[in-house]
Amino acid sequence: MNYETVIGIETHVELKTKSKMFCGCSAEFGAEPNTHTCPVCLGLPGALPVPNEQAIDWIVAIGLALDSTIAPWSVFHRKNYFYADMPKNYQISQFDIPICGGGHLDIVADGKAVRIGVTRVHMEEDTGKSTHVGGDGRIQSADHTLLDFNRAGVPLVEIVSEPDLRTPAQARAYVQELHEIVEALNVSDARLEEGSMRFDANISLRPQGDQALGVKVEIKNMNSFRSLERALTFEIERQRRLLDAGTTVAQETRHWDEAAGVTHSMRSKEESSDYRYFTEPDLVPMEISDEWRERIRSELPELPAQRRVRYLSLGLDSTTAATLVAVGLGRLFETAVAAGGTARTVANWLTGEVTAYLRKEGKGPNGTSLTGEALAELGALVESGDLSISAAKPVLEGVLNGEGSPREVAEQRDLLQLSDVGVLGAVVDEVLAANPEEAERLRNGDMKVLGFLMGHVMRSTKGKADPKLANEMLRSRS
Question: How many CB atoms lie within 10 A of CB 13?
Fold first, then answer.
């Protein structure tokens, strides 16, 4: 039987506020365990929460970027469940009146444009971190578990998509676009490796043409775009085999095992009634005025989709424009172009050698000494003939390593081309005099010997001769 895959994604984004969502504890990542805690985030008796206004501003910004409707009136709820990393035994979250409702995100995947609906964007607090010690690092085989409550209470935004995704490739494109939006808004570090942005996927299969949804399975523990795509691909095949065999798919939560490339059953899937939501009694309702909303809207930066369109107008192709935005090198590109660099040349350097260098060194866009002005200078040196294309690559590497400006690096490494007409002319004359037979053949129109003579010129100048100028001199003097 042919099946249609139905996928919805829940994306969790940790905001990079200085303090937690409902207390003044630092939200900084990487501190010693349990050093950023207080009676409020530990849920001790008598401690009262106070909302973080910056976090509310930022969730509204996310909602506006996704074309969501911002609720003029919203409340927090208690989501009740018991787990070791929940110091209160409940999580302050939102239920039926989220701050942001509806919206959409446009993506391109599988060769076509698709609009993915957004159900809601709501605010909650993060849980603590559990480290399972022993065995394979999972709770089932661990000897014991260590708990760190530094993360408990950090502001967490949950973005819930409609079940509009149909393939793992679409799911990957969707979360990548979300990641770019979050980075553009500058509301989160969005570091997947640190858990600043995490994905849960709900997936079901149904017979092709049916409208009713199949049995939903939730997959946890995807911490990269690749993991999400791999997990969904595996789960589609697992559910297909079950359905083809006449077996019922269990509604459950499954864990993605990155090393093994499979999902494992964790627990039966909860329904909203299992959490016994009720309005948080220690927090008053929030009223988001029109003035508040529009002030945030006026502060929104250029979003990734808008930036890609603008880059196309500068003469870049769609792939290069998308890559510049995706790897976070847009600001460097724009600075270089503003400094006089040619858009296509600058973009090629950034999406080629610079991106390769960053990946090799494990650095981000701001992790080097490279500036837009330096890129523009590098292009100018090549265009003027002072630097060859081949020599420009080691010069760029030197700049990335902090050795100086492009000209300084080229001079230090003795890579500047010889373009002095007098000096180069003397070398050409010597080569022609030393090779009279080849010089005569060239005078008679035999272009086959031009490469031979050019080789001698390049060797005589240790590869530093401007090839275009040397070529012209050989032709004119033979």
Answer: 26
